[in-house]
Amino acid sequence: xxxxxxxxxxxxFCKTGGLADVAGSLPPALAKEGAEVAVVLPLYRTVKERFxxxxxxxCYDYVxxxxxHNYCGLFSLEKDGVTWYFLxxxxxxxxxxxxxxxxxxxxxxxxxxxxxxMLSHMKFWPDVIHCNxxxxxLVPVYLKDDGVREERYRSIKTTLTxxxxxxxxxxxxxxxGELFGLNxxxxxxxxxxxxxxLNLLKGAILCSDAVTTVSPTYAExxxxxxxxxxxxxxxxxxxxxxxxxxxxIDQALYDPSxxxxxxxxxxxxxxxxxxxxxxxxxxMLGLREDPELPIVAIVSRLVxxxxxxxxxEVIHDMMELPMQLVILxxxxxxxxxxxxxAGQQYPGRMAVRLDYNxxxxxxxxxxxxxxxxxxxxxxxxxxxxxxxxxxTVPIVRETGxxxxxxxxxxxxxxxxxxxxxxxxxxxxxxxxxxxxxxxxTDYPEVFGRLRQRAMSADFSWGRSAAxxxxxYGGLLDRSWPEEAAPETVPVEAAAAPExxxxxxxxxxxxxxxxxxxxxxxxxxxAPAKKSAKAAGEESAPKAKKxxxxxxxxxxxxxxxxxxxxKDAAD
Length: 570
Ligand code: GLC
What we know:
Elements: E1 2-6, H1 18-32, E2 36-42, H2 45-51, E3 56-65, E4 68-79, E5 82-88, H3 90-93, H4 104-117, E6 128-132, H5 138-147, H6 151-154, E7 157-162, E8 170-171, H7 176-180, H8 185-188, E9 193-194, E10 197-199, H9 200-207, E11 210-213, H10 216-221, H11 225-228, H12 232-237, E12 242-244, H13 272-284, E13 295-299, H14 308-320, E14 324-328, H15 333-345, E15 350-353, H16 358-367, E16 370-373, H17 383-389, E17 393-397, H18 400-405, E18 419-421, H19 426-442, H20 444-455, H21 461-476, H22 485-488, H23 491-495, H24 511-519, H25 526-544, H26 548-553, H27 557-569
Parallel strand pairs: 1-2, 1-6, 2-5, 6-7, 7-11, 11-12, 13-14, 13-16, 14-15, 16-17, 17-18
Antiparallel strand pairs: 3-4, 4-5, 8-10, 9-10
Helix pairs in contact: 1-21, 4-5, 5-9, 13-16, 14-15, 14-19, 19-20
Bound molecules: alpha-D-glucopyranose.
The site of alpha-D-glucopyranose (GLC) has 14 residues, from helix 1.
């Protein structure tokens, strides 16, 4: 199966957000499953500066778009079993930033047109072109346009992944022909028209053979107006070809036992390194050095859909709890100002860094105890998964990928791998923060087991890659992997048991056992320990019945839900 993955950013070449992480890891994972994969992205200045000496010039050609006739260079690089192609046009891409220019429409119109134009210069003619977000949304539209004239374009199937429906590529319909070289029929029949605007994402949703988004819950949410930014009727109409495939993370890159970016390495079995990372974090950020207090961390862009209003509303109630708070991120001025001010009110207990700083973010994932993500909407979210890998237990709102990756803590059966709340309400958020903080301070062993469950969750790309391959296979009327496996997997590799992953999708919490069993044949004492302790410890929190706040923190899940329902009704 030949897949061409089209993206406007990919790690390690260029990154502004989560799309880059996905585009950097999914294609190699598809290749590992046996597909032939190439990725194509623009040759930005930053790519040329950092990877210029590794690029091979393939050829150049000219791209016709409306009245423009523009040069397009094709460069390539082999990495992780994937061919990475870069499309060169200095006028469009030799700029300091990836996006944010007045002519972004023209820049990515050119990109999409050039992808189709340059297909015949690439190493294969693809079975499937997989596009991402509005920047490559015109590819399926151009393929339909060209397919009218040439059969070979009709043979290509298309998949579109929506990483965040908020960004749609909206323009004045007047420029359709001038900028994108398309016939006005595309807006007249409504295919690319929404709310009076030319809408590139809508066009792609309608023209693609399959549409995916980055978590099953977000796929459901996109059918409702609250989440879909006016595209909900289109999402409902296209429900038959819509699916949600949960993103993974690069588990080798984010591994606390090998990560060179953190000061002290550790594992779920031996957390002494994490304690030292915590002390170091407290020193670095001017927090009181106290192992007893949990550090609650937020690493986020400071923008509205991240749910920061909830935190602003109850910041003082939060700081009444025995905890420390760390905030790292930058974004909207109102949040920056608020958190700067709040940080000054709690010296030694709250640290605010208004910055995008990868090194510090790793120190926080390693050193913190709890990770707060109360997003209003979150298509998938990667940081909660990274936090869990580093044993930093997430507190999230049940939306999108947060809901699909974090299972709520249930005291009565010692289950779950984080804390969750459903309603977009600061009271509900405070309630679970309290539950988490008091579990940490009063029942360290129970918290320890929760932390271990978080660390052992499986977020590897293998399972998602297999799901994408099944989707592509469905489009091509081919089953996957049965048919392709013998052809593409070398004999030795096929013999190795670890390469033949299970066919069935595993629930997130079931997978780690299989994964760890594969990786290290250590004695598996965890389950025995868990069941032995479960009986003894479980009753401890309930029997103790501490002060009012603590009692709230150890309610059973059932009671909690009931209480929430009541709050909501009030
Ligand atoms: C977008 C979404 C984020 C998701 C990422 C990768 O940035 O907002 O939730 O994790 O794309 O798909």
